[in-house]
């Protein structure tokens, strides 16, 4: 019983971290229909900025987080103008894959050049080190913090996309950009804003998740499959879907590794296949479907 | 990115839009002899680089298999290496344990690749878009994990070594200089291209194109989209398996990487780079990518990644249909000039 | 732009098409404020292309179009919509992943949500289906939604591409009556020639990307030979 | 004349650091000992192989032989890449000096392999003996699920149980794991006093070590042992205090206290500005170059006969930055001193500080039937 | 007379919404029947139920005596139950000709030939040429459908249905977007079909309905309202109210 509880807690904590990093991808993929394989790269950039800000510039953790998100968004906005704008739309999927892989390569090479190949860390403040007791189970304070941040992100995003006119206009622009423009919706600005949202979330996830997914130049490539899995299981563009998927995968992965570590990898992918077999459009049928 | 996902946008590709299909087909026809001719020329011109050329030829066959599923079936996959790896291991295991004739190895690879494609295809091809992409990745990972666990047969992460293929037709030994390897690989590639072209111009190829565009419409004329896709996936699996076997024959070793995700992803990049739905685009893309990689990695291994990234971005921005579409456009221009003259 | 846009439309020697393909080969017509123009012609002559060019969805190769004297050519689609164009495309272009209500909100152009009631009053059917997905609607319901969505933006010039297609005759009656009451400039493309001619005050016939006849609607209606020549039909007696 | 040495290693990609350490060490060696041997100039030609990919490894090696006409092959970070060239070096009669790839079985596949790195068996056997001697009765092994990991697991189990200990759980962890909390839970539940862990150097070791202290295992007094890959020098700054007190066994530590090592580290710092990347693979390459130089010397100039060259260095002994080395005439693998180290802060910088030395350790894994 | 299509007690709910309720009707060989009704009455839904695109909540469907209620859509097509779509649904990058080739090959189950060439399949070219001619599409044969005017797409939609050699042909608003001049083509094509098959047409264009139909069925709010000849229907006040409006007088 206690073990089950332990697995559940660990799984939820892991899941929330997956959620916070992947939800930005769900936004760009589901809402803008951009297969943004550079999502991991943006997350990594956020992490590196925070690491630099905290370690070299000596900012506090909170401040470093804000700076990282802001700088990442600012740095990637020109990319939207110059690159992404040309590949919007589901018809361009292959071009998207190629372009974002190319971009990822460039970012990886750049980070490698600037910061070197070794692992980087973002020092945690005193407050977030140590553990909190959750019944019989102790979980690291930092993870508890991430869970809270994830929940806040979840609610905020849901409200923004489902309840505001911005959300409606955005979804209209995604569904049929030409018609949306003909109705007077400024699709270009909307896309810019949404892109910024997506990269901001990526950076946030990169910083908050750095304890689990350590920062190094190949971060950008190493974890992208994991993020895609969350988005696919959740249903692209569905915020609640991403959360449900991240938690489900987190728990499955944790349980698999605990119970049958030798076949941990099998277990995870077999579960993925089963879930996608049962829900081919993801838990919450994706917007793009 | 689900239902409409894999359709190439007719608007983004002005050439295919306005060239009558017949003209495009003609270019396709020149493509294959051209591959053979350039391949042979390379044999004489670059005798010291046969190792690289052999890898390009075998990889091109693999990328070709991906073109079959993606370019003609609209199946976006990041798990094609599962078939490649299965074919490679099958060929290797057959060679190590039973018979090391290169053709027998190719046959084993083809059967294994086709078999695994048939089995997994039937399981996953109900899905589309991102879901399918994930499923293919998952299948790839599982195949790789099986290969890792079956150490007794596959050598696990150490790789399956000790593959020593017999001389081709009992005459041509696989030498250190790679002459036999290269010519053998080139011949298999050209044969593969011919067969693929044949299949894609058949009624089956036509039906597959229909499925790619609108599977529901296919069922409305009485076809079963899934059975076409599964068949196509299996056919492509045979190609991928043969490509894997070809690599096993020419390199004498099979590693876990041959079934890995990076290899699938790289193949996708090479295909899109070359241009989908053309067959010879696969060859162009593979040659361009691996050639450039080779040159960059030799001159500046630390930063080649950045350069190749810029190159990919450049292709998307300036040659949206891939290199092959650029060539077609060039061809179109020349022809128009001729017409005027 | 004048303080109060009133909606006169002028098209001069317009040449446009898709990419390099030229479809419209020099089209000119004008609609005065509050005017109603029927744009008729056989299949594929370029009616849809004309309207799509006006809203900025095609490639313009030459010529111009002015709304209240302001040239539209340099603006993008959303700019033209802001300038007062409203558009009901032939293919309806419902946002399939949005609910009916959200589809309407997307057309509000900044007006308050209370304005949605106007749409539900015009087509009660939409009110009943407001929570349904746009993709779930029947063909005719989609047509209603498309028209209602365009009207909610209070355009000064309304471009209608076969708005009656797929509507039950009673609904056609309702819609035409509602359109007749509108106080805006309207360009109507329609296959139901009799209804179109009843509605419009002027008519333009297109053929292969050119204007082949322009004149008062009433005159055209009374001239079976003319209709026969440009449309290949005589009106049902 | 010029004698070329082809080096195949990852210079880009996730393991790019490894190639970098090779190259730097080679350049340090050449700066210290000159680029010539007798009348011959030794020139290194590098080929990038970014990840384990035996087919590519073979193609690159083939190109080095055919096009570059190298007299030696060297490098090879991963086992399959090293294994792939066995038929080639036999056919071309070229010695192949392995700077890293650590599976014992490699040198069995061709008489032309010489290895100057280490094997998992070599590192693990003395460590397991040490653990048993510390009075540890119950231990868990947790290794990455791939060749070297399985070697480590087997070496640990055999040795530890031979000395009276019990391995209560053998956990194999997927190579790509990111979250280690469940494994920690399992280790905790097993009731072991100590854990023997092996993961390849990189992000996973970091996450593992962090998880070990985060989930309270460290606080619960469970001891943490493993081969030195876990705390390799380039990762230490990122590991931070989580690594303090981790005990590892390895053939080299940057902090090794010897004149030769000081000279090596100093020269490295002089040439490349920092010693952050000095680690086990550096000395693997450094000593590998030494062996190559020796083979050239023994050949007396001119063309290299692979078989004879290898023969000439069997049993060769010398002093390296890591300590005394001998090439075992049987296995052609270096017999060396294995050090027991603990991570400590030295001048504010984390270092693997040597606590004990186990001299003359051979490759215990050579020809162990599997 | 042979009963080709029999529908009994067909019903469909979407969530709580009853879209079709207790629909029963029969189509006999030779029938030319029109299905009319207000927007959202459930006509397309009815077609979707009959053709197997969506499963019914209740009821049975029989084709030539065989119960096909549970058969998948493609299976029904192979049995000769063919439909056209209300909104043209075509393969955008394929040419008109390729559409028809595909349809004919599919009908004859010759699509799994991997090594034959489309151009050399016996009899194919002639049949396709005939179909192109029937619908006046010969000129457009090599045009990709994506750049075809909408009206021509509608004609191709019908040509596809004809290519399948149907037993029961269901046309969902075949003339929507087709001008009167061209709609005659559609009627001509239908006239040339073998007498012994049944055609069901959904259409809002009353001229076309009256020219085509021998019987008319009216659907309203998911239920059958009435059926009869054109005269009877026009005379029915209920039909005038829910559907025809001013058009009743235009006749
Ligand atoms: N997206 C497109 N790309 C290229 N050509 C097109 C495209 N859409 C239409 N066309 C061509 O433009 C011409 C005019 O088409 P348009 O749709 O404007 O005709 P229309 O008068 O509206 O006909 P209909 O009555 O059938 O709607 C046609 O010949 C058609 O083939
Ligand atoms: N998937 C669905 N979910 C919910 N409601 C649906 C769905 N499909 C159809 N409906 C509803 O069922 C009703 C009947 O739709 P149907 O398309 O059958 O009408 P129709 O008679 O063909 O109308 P039209 O003449 O306008 O094409 C409509 O009100 C529609 O909103
Ligand atoms: Mg039109
Ligand atoms: Mg309908």
UniProtKB/TrEMBL annotation, chain A:
The keyword Cell membrane applies. Pfam families: BPD_transp_2. It is a multi-pass membrane protein. The chain crosses the membrane at residues 12-31, 61-79, 94-115, 144-161, 190-213, 225-252, 258-277. Keywords: Amino-acid transport, Cell membrane, Membrane, Transmembrane, Transmembrane helix, Transport. The keyword Transmembrane applies. InterPro entries: ABC_transp_permease (IPR001851), BCAA_transport_permease (IPR052157). It is found in: Cell membrane. Belongs to the binding-protein-dependent transport system permease family. LivHM subfamily. This is Branched-chain amino acid ABC transporter permease. It comes from Azospirillum endophyticum.
From TrEMBL, chain B:
It is a multi-pass membrane protein. It holds the Pfam family BPD_transp_2. The chain crosses the membrane at residues 27-46, 52-74, 81-99, 105-125, 182-200, 230-256, 268-292, 304-327. CDD domains: TM_PBP1_LivM_like (cd06581). Coiled coil: none annotated. Keywords: Cell membrane, Membrane, Transmembrane, Transmembrane helix. It is found in: Cell membrane. This is Branched-chain amino acid ABC transporter permease. It comes from Azospirillum endophyticum. The lineage of its organism: Bacteria, Pseudomonadati, Pseudomonadota, Alphaproteobacteria, Rhodospirillales.
Automatic annotation (TrEMBL), chain C:
Residues 9-233 form the ABC transporter domain. Gene3D superfamilies: P-loop containing nucleotide triphosphate hydrolases. InterPro entries: AAA+_ATPase (IPR003593), ABC_transporter-like_ATP-bd (IPR003439), ABC_transporter-like_CS (IPR017871), BCAA_Transport_ATP-bd_LivF (IPR052156), P-loop_NTPase (IPR027417). This is ABC transporter ATP-binding protein. It comes from Azospirillum endophyticum. Keywords: Amino-acid transport, ATP-binding, Nucleotide-binding, Transport. GO terms for molecular function: ATP binding. The lineage of its organism: Bacteria, Pseudomonadati, Pseudomonadota, Alphaproteobacteria, Rhodospirillales. Belongs to the ABC transporter superfamily.
UniProtKB/TrEMBL annotation, chain E:
Residues 5-246 form the ABC transporter domain. Gene3D superfamilies: P-loop containing nucleotide triphosphate hydrolases. Transmembrane segments: none annotated. GO terms for molecular function: ATP binding. Keywords: ATP-binding, Nucleotide-binding, Transport. This is ABC transporter ATP-binding protein. It comes from Azospirillum endophyticum.
């Amino acid at each position: 019983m206690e073990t089950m509880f332990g697995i559940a807690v660990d799984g939820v904590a892991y899941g929330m971290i997956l959620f916070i990093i992947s939800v930005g991808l769900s936004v760009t993929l589901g809402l803008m229909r951009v297969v943004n394989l550079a999502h991991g790269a943006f997350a990594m950039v956020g992490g590196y900025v925070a690491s630099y800000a905290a370690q070299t510039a000596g900012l506090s953790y909170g401040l470093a987080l804000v700076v990282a998100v802001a700088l990442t968004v600012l740095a990637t906005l020109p990319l939207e103008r110059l690159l992404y704008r040309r590949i919007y739309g589901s018809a361009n999927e292959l071009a998207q894959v190629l372009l974002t892989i190319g971009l990822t390569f460039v970012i990886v090479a750049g980070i490698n050049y600037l910061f070197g190949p070794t692992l980087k860390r973002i020092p945690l403040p005193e407050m977030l080190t140590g553990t909190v007791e959750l019944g019989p189970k102790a979980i690291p304070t930092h993870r508890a913090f991430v869970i809270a941040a994830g929940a806040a992100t979840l609610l905020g995003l849901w409200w923004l996309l489902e309840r505001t006119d911005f959300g409606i206009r955005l979804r209209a622009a995604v569904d049929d950009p030409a018609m949306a423009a003909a109705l007077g919706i400024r699709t270009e600005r909307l896309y810019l804003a949404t892109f910024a949202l997506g990269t901001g979330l990526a950076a946030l996830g990169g910083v908050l998740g750095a304890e689990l997914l350590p920062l190094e130049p190949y971060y950008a490539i190493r974890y992208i499959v994991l993020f895609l899995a969350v988005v696919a299981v959740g249903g692209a563009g569905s915020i609640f879907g991403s959360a449900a998927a991240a938690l489900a995968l987190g728990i499955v992965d944790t349980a698999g590794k605990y119970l049958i570590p030798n076949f941990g990898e099998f277990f995870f992918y077999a579960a993925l296949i089963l879930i996608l077999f049962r829900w081919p459009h993801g838990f919450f049928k994706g917007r793009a479907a | 990115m689900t239902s409409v996902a894999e359709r190439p946008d007719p608007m983004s590709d002005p050439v295919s839009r306005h060239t009558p299909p017949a003209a495009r087909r003609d270019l396709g026809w020149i493509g294959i002899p051209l591959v053979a001719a350039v391949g042979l020329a390379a044999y004489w011109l670059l005798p010291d680089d046969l190792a690289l050329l052999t890898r390009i030829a075998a990889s091109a066959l693999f990328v070709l298999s991906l073109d079959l599923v993606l370019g003609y079936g609209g199946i976006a996959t990041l798990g094609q290496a599962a078939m490649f790896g299965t074919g490679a291991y099958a060929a290797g295991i057959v060679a190590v344990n039973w018979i090391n004739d290169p053709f027998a190895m190719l046959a084993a690879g083809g059967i294994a690749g086709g078999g695994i494609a048939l089995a997994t295809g039937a399981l996953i091809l109900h899905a589309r878009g991102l879901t399918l992409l994930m499923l293919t990745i998952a299948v790839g990972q599982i195949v790789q994990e099986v290969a890792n666990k079956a150490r007794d047969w596959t050598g696990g992460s150490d790789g399956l070594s000790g593959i020593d293929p017999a001389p081709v037709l009992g005459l041509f030994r696989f030498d250190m200089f790679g002459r036999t390897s290269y010519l053998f690989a080139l011949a298999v590639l050209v044969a593969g291209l011919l067969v693929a072209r044949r299949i894609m111009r058949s009624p089956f190829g036509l039906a597959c194109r229909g499925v790619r565009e609108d599977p529901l419409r296919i069922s409305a004329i009485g076809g079963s989209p899934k059975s076409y896709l599964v068949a196509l996936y299996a056919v492509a699996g045979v190609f991928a398996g043969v490509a894997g076997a070809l690599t096993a024959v020419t390199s004498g070793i099979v590693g876990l990487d041959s079934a890995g995700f990076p290899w699938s992803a790289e193949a996708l990049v090479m295909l899109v780079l070359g241009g989908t739905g053309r067959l010879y685009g696969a060859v162009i893309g593979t040659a361009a990518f691996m050639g450039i990689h080779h040159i960059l990695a030799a001159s500046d291994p630390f930063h080649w990644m950045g350069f190749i990234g810029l190159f990919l971005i450049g292709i998307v921005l300036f040659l949206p249909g891939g290199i092959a579409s650029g060539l077609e456009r060039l061809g179109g221009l020349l022809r128009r000039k001729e017409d005027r003259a | 732009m004048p303080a109060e846009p009133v909606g006169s439309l002028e098209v001069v020697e317009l040449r446009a098409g898709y990419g390099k393909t030229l479809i419209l080969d020099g089209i000119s017509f004008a609609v005065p404020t509050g005017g109603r123009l029927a744009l008729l012609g056989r299949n594929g002559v370029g009616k849809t292309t004309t309207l799509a060019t006006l809203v900025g969805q095609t490639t313009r190769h030459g010529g111009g179009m002015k709304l209240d004297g302001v040239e539209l050519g340099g603006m993008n689609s959303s700019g033209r919509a802001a300038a007062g164009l409203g558009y009901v495309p032939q293919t309806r272009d419902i946002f399939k992943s949005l609910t009916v209500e959200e589809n309407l909100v997307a057309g509000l152009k900044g007006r308050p949500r209370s304005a949605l009631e106007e749409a539900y009053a015009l087509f009660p059917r939409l009110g009943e289906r407001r929570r349904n997905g746009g993709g779930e609607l029947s063909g005719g319901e989609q047509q209603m939604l498309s028209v209602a969505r365009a009207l909610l933006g209070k355009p000064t010039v309304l471009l209608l591409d076969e708005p009656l297609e797929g509507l039950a005759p009673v609904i056609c009656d309702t819609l035409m009556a509602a359109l007749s009451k509108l106080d805006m400039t309207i360009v109507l493309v329609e296959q139901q020639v009799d209804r179109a001619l009843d509605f419009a005050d002027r008519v333009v016939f297109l053929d292969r990307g050119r204007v082949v006849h322009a004149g008062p609607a009433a005159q055209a209606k009374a001239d079976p030979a003319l209709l026969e020549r440009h449309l290949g039909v005589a009106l049902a007696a | 004349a010029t004698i070329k040495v082809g080096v195949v290693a990852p210079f880009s990609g996730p393991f790019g650091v490894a190639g970098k350490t090779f190259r730097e060490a080679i350049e340090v060696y050449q700066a210290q000992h000159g680029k010539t041997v007798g009348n011959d100039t030794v020139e290194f030609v590098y080929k990038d192989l970014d990840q384990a990919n035996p087919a590519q490894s073979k193609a690159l090696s083939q190109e080095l032989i055919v096009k570059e006409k190298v007299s030696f092959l060297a490098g090879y970070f991963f086992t399959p890449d090293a294994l792939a060239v066995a038929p080639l070096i036999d056919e071309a009669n070229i010695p192949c000096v392995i700077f890293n790839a650590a599976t014992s079985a490699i040198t069995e596949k061709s008489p032309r392999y010489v290895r100057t790195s280490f094997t998992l068996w070599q590192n693990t056997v003395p460590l397991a003996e040490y653990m048993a001697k510390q009075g540890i009765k119950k231990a868990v092994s947790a290794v990455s699920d791939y060749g070297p990991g399985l070697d480590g697991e087997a070496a640990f189990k055999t040795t530890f149980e031979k000395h009276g200990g019990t391995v209560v759980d053998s956990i194999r962890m997927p190579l790509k794991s990111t979250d280690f909390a469940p494994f920690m839970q399992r280790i905790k539940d097993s009731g072991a006093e100590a854990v023997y862990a092996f993961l390849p150097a990189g992000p996973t070791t970091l996450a593992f070590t962090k998880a070990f202290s985060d989930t309270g295992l460290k606080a619960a007094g469970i001891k943490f042992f493993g081969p030195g890959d876990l705390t390799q020098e380039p990762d230490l700054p990122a590991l931070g205090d989580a690594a303090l007190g981790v005990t590892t066994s390895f053939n080299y530590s940057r902090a090794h206290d010897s004149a030769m090592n000081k000279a090596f580290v100093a020269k490295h710092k002089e040439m490349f500005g920092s010693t952050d990347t000095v680690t086990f693979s550096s000395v693997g390459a450094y000593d590998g170059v030494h062996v190559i130089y020796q083979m050239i010397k023994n050949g007396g100039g001119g063309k290299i006969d692979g078989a004879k060259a290898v023969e000439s260095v069997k049993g060769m002994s010398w002093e390296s930055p890591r300590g005394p080395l001998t090439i075992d005439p049987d296995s052609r693998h270096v017999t060396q001193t294995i050090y027991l180290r603990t991570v400590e802060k030295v001048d504010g910088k984390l270092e693997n500080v040597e606590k004990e030395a186990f001299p003359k350790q051979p490759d215990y894994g050579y020809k162990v039937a599997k | 007379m042979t009963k080709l299509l029999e529908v009994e007690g067909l019903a469909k709910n979407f969530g709580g919404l009853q879209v079709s309720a207790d629909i029963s009707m029969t189509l006999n060989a030779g029938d030319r029947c029109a299905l009319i009704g207000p927007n959202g009455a459930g006509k397309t839904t009815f077609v979707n139920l009959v053709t197997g695109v969506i499963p019914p909540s209740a009821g049975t469907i029989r084709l030539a005596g065989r119960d096909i209620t549970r058969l998948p859509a493609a299976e029904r097509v192979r049995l000769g139950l063919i439909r056209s779509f209300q909104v043209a649904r075509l393969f955008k990058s394929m040419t008109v000709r390729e559409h028809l080739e595909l349809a004919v090959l599919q009908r004859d189950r010759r699509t799994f030939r991997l090594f034959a060439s489309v151009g050399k399949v016996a009899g194919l070219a002639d049949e396709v040429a005939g179909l192109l001619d029937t619908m006046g599409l010969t000129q457009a044969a090599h045009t990709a459908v994506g750049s075809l005017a909408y009206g021509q797409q509608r004609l191709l939609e019908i040509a596809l249905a004809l290519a399948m050699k149907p037993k029961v042909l269901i046309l969902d608003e075949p003339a929507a977007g087709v001008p009167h001049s061209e709609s005659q083509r559609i009627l001509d094509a239908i006239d040339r079909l073998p007498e012994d098959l049944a055609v069901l047409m959904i259409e809002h264009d009353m001229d076309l309905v009256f020219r085509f139909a021998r019987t008319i069925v009216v659907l309203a709010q998911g239920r059958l309202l009435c059926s009869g000849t054109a005269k009877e229907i026009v005379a029915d006040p209920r039909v005038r109210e829910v559907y025809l409006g001013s058009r009743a007088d235009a006749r």
